[in-house]
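User: I'm preparing a small set of examples for a lab meeting where we compare how different chains pack in three dimensions. I only have the primary sequence for this one, and I'd like the structure in token form so I can line it up with the others. Please keep the answer compact; I'll paste it straight into my notes.
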Amino acid sequence: MNVVIVESPAKAKTINKYLGSDYTVLASFGHVRDLPPKDGSVRPDEDFAMDWEVDADAKKRIADIAKALKGAHRLYLATDPDREGEAISWHVLQILNDRKALKGVEVGRITFNEITKSAVTGAIKAPRMLDQELIDAYLARRALDYLVGFTLSPVLWRKLPGARSAGRVQSVALRLICERELEIERFKSQEYWSVLGHFIAGDGMGFDARLTHLDGRKLDKFDINSAEKAEAAKAAIERREFHVDSVESKPGTRNPAPPFTTSTLQQEAARKLGFSAQRTMQLAQRLYEGIDVDGETVGLITYMRTDGVSMASEAIQGARNLIGNQFGGAYLPDSPRIYKTKAKNAQEAHEAIRPTDFARTPERLHRLDPDQRRLYDLIWKRALASQMNPARLERTTVDVAAKDRQVILRATGSVVLFDGFLALYQEGVDDRSKDDEDGGRLPRMMKDEGLRRGPVTIAQHFTEPPPRYSEASLVKKLEELGIGRPSTYASILSTLRDRAYVTMDRNRFLPEDKGRLVTAFLESFFARYVEYGFTAGLEELLDDVSAGKIGWKEVLRDFWRDFAAAIEGTKDLKISDVIEQLDQLLGPHLFPEGEPDENGERKDPRVCPSCGNGRLSLKLGKFGAFIGCSNYPECRFTRQFGVANDNGQGTAIGEDGIKILGEDPESGEKVSLRSGRFGPYVQLGEAEKPKRASLPKDMPPDTIDLEKALALLSLPREVGLHPETSTPIQAGIGRYGPYIVHDKRYVNLPTSDEVFTIGLNRAVALLAEPPKRGRRAAQEPLKAFGEHPEDGKPVNVMNGRFGPYVSWNGVFATIPKGTDPQSLTQDEALALLAAKVAKGGGPKKKAPRKTAKAAEAETAEKKKAAPKKKAPAKKPAAKKTAAKKTAAKSAGASD
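Assistant: Understood. Below is the structure token output for the 895-residue chain.
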């Protein structure tokens, strides 16, 4: 008997079918032990001695492995083929040795890049020893992350209230997001105008050309920056005749992109499918571990955590055969296309992510759920296209000139001469320029050919700031900088969201005040450790450890020497000192200088706009950072942390925290949108205690106009009189969101907008519904999977108070954050339930039903065991006078 250890139960199930009855395949369910989350788990003073603790959930799994090894001949450690997989195998081996469970058992490490029968059986025939250098690299990385997290985070907690944690790579990713936001806020939009002329060639085909020269001079982008100049340019074109001045055609080629690596898969899945990095990795894991295809469980893609872009020779041959058969010889290169990675610090020599069998087309895989099919389709097409011929293009540039050459316009276009790989796949783009001058198809034209002029159009434009990072563009940036590893990107981005350092706005990262303060703090006091070059340099050192070029403890010693000194340097810092330092650092950003007035003088941006003589500065309160006046409490002016801009990506509120929306038609007072320490609100007038209304969460500040502001200020509003009681029903927005109320009965509304639109009939219907108290009525499942294979009980996805979960016979398994419950497959649901059961959350077991005789016997036994009650002692008769008084007192108490 042989025992094989893998990481997941789905993988174990697939491999067990390949190996047969002579093998027992068990899952470790990932890591089985880790550093305890407390001080002292890594001890630099003891040459970085490390304590390890077996996970409580893993103890039973280790016991199962030890039990299976009794009488076994061999143990195969078959965890994933990367550093983490090597580390899991090392941990399992260490624990089994400690338990003396390996007497007489041969141990071998095996890896395979794809879960197919040939790959697995081939690996079994060629076991190796554990790779100590990969293990050392894991130990160094784990120790570094622990030392940074458990040393730096407490400094943050003490010196910057509200901060939650700081991680080695997480902090650098946060810095990228915050720096991009600074760029956006500092950006000053510039106006420019485009002038387009429509022309018709001799064959009757029309095209557009953009004005490039006026009055004999080449135009810069901002030379035409007003409507007046644009109209003058338009008139100059309209009074001239034009001809073709020059035609230039350049042939070109566009080569296919290489097959996916982990990061490029995450980027492309975000661009084309809208998947988060976490969702992409969940789906890819499932495709790798195995899907039921024609009655057989088979891994559909190769290992999905990789930096490599190469493919195995047999995979290349399979792709070439399919290209030749499906597309024809014109699309097949004479020789295979070979790719080499360009990513900085690319490490493990794995294959790219590709299908395990190109003949298994997406159309054949009927058992995949929609999201799995879409991701597999993307992987299949990208890998297949990488072995196709390039596309051949012809880029044509035509200059159109007036006879006096005082006015010249230019048209550009591309013609696809041969589509090549574009017949199958085209790579997505993060952010296309809106001013892309590439046109479409152009007519055939000759030099000096006369042209008929059509209409001339002008259009106003404004320059735009760089876009906020999406998941795809942030992963790409991290990879370019050599920061982090493919397997870590999804968890890094999730951690930033979970810590509330960032939020997502239209699938873009928006830093929260808390995140910006943490970044500013680290840049002020730990600048070296959030430098991009330093973090990338550490990654290179870890690669050197895995290559055997440097010892892992040497890396830790060099790092800890300087890092410990930096921590010690913050020991005597006071919170007030920190806030003062951050105020100085963020001052140019929080209080930018305005435009000079007509006398050339600039207004001091720190002067309080409310009292006129107070100074504005950064403050730290119970609810985070805000801007406040030095004359507090006499002056209570506050505004939110951050500044305004005019580019549509920031707040709509002005730099002084105020935006005038208009006048109230009834009172004539100003209605303003303001930014306070507790968030944006609208205000009527400037009285000592003006009427105010906070903006609900589902109403962004940039959507608030005068009409909406007046509606908010008018709340609560009367919906009408209840037909049964003739008392009013009111609608409003309160602490717990939008509601209606009648006779002290509150009912929540789904959206804030409904507060302003709800009518009497709907309000009465909502109030008539029974209150949701006590035991909840049985709810309909979000998704039903049918019967569980063990007991036939139903397996459903339900919506709970804390999010969606999988339910089966009293077992409730939480669905991971970021996972769409509707896209969950039955196998994934069963895996979640199995993990929950392994943690001790087993199914409910009913007590055996008692027979009538057994029930009678149990009752008789209870009666015998019950102590006999003594008869109460007789009380002496009370005197008549006392009885009368007692009766009188009792009567008085009941009135």
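A couple of notes for your slides: The CA atoms of residues 520 and 637 lie 24 Å apart. The first strand starts at residue 2 and ends at 6.

User: Perfect, thanks.
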